[in-house]
Amino acid sequence: MKYKTLIPKSEARRIVLERRAELTEANINRMSNLVIERLIKIDDFVFARNIFAYINARHGEVHTRQLIDIMDGRGKSIILPKLNKKSKSFHRFHFMGWESLMKNSEGYYEPKLGIDEDLSDIDLILLPATAVSVKGQRVGNGGGYYDKLLRNCRTPKYVLAFEFQLFDYIESTTHDIRVDKIITERRIIDTRKNLIYTS
User: Fold this and answer.
1) pLDDT digits over 85-97, tens only?
2) CATH number of the domain to which 30 belongs
3) What is the pLDDT of residue 1?
4) SS3 sequence, the chain?
């Protein structure tokens, strides 16, 4: 079901979480592979040396472990976020292999150390989302960590998502960071140019 009217963030989250709960691991794996296949053909990805990525943590998210292995195998520098609860923000650290990660208090894996919030050397940023609009309005998990991190960042920002996470319009504020492209199992949406690629 597609929503063509403005939808509150809380409602978008609720709808997506209900849809996620219905997914089997087999379906998640299949759709994740299709998302990754689309992403790795895009020039921004192909030519990026330093990529800010994330490790999926919740049921129904695009699986990114395979993607991280692909990037590592291609010699790309992978930067992962580390949650800093004191400052309520993310710090960054280079991916040094799966054994260098730890499970944090939120239940997901991250680097054991974090350095700073500098993203000036990053060529491409890959973001998770609970919900996202075709206009680039991203809804996270409610902490605002990514919005804070990316506030003054002009690096291309991509969301990896499934079709059921898409809406036409989602409420947003001036603090919300708009994303440039959305990659799903069916298409690539360029939110800046209002273009949709399905091949």
Assistant:
1) 777 778 888 899 9
2) 3.40.50.10420
3) 44
4) CCCCCEECHHHHHHHHHHHHHCCCHHHHHHHHHHHHHHHCCCHHHHCCCEEECCCCCCCCCCCCHHHHHHHHHCCCEEEEEEEECCCCEEEEEECCCHHHEEECCCCCEEECCCCCCCCCCCCEEEECCCEEECCCEEECCCCCHHHHHCCCCCCCEEEECCHHHEECEECCCCCCCECCEEECCCCEEECCCCEEECC
Residue 1 maps to a domain? no
- Are the CB atoms for 128 and 61 separated by under 8 Å? yes
Query: Per the confidence metrics, is the pTM higher than 0.85?
Result: yes
Contacting residues for 77 by C-beta, under 8 A, at least 6 apart: 49, 50, 51, 94
Question: What pLDDT is stored for residue 176 in this prediction?
Answer: 80
- Give me the domain span that covers residue 142: 6-197
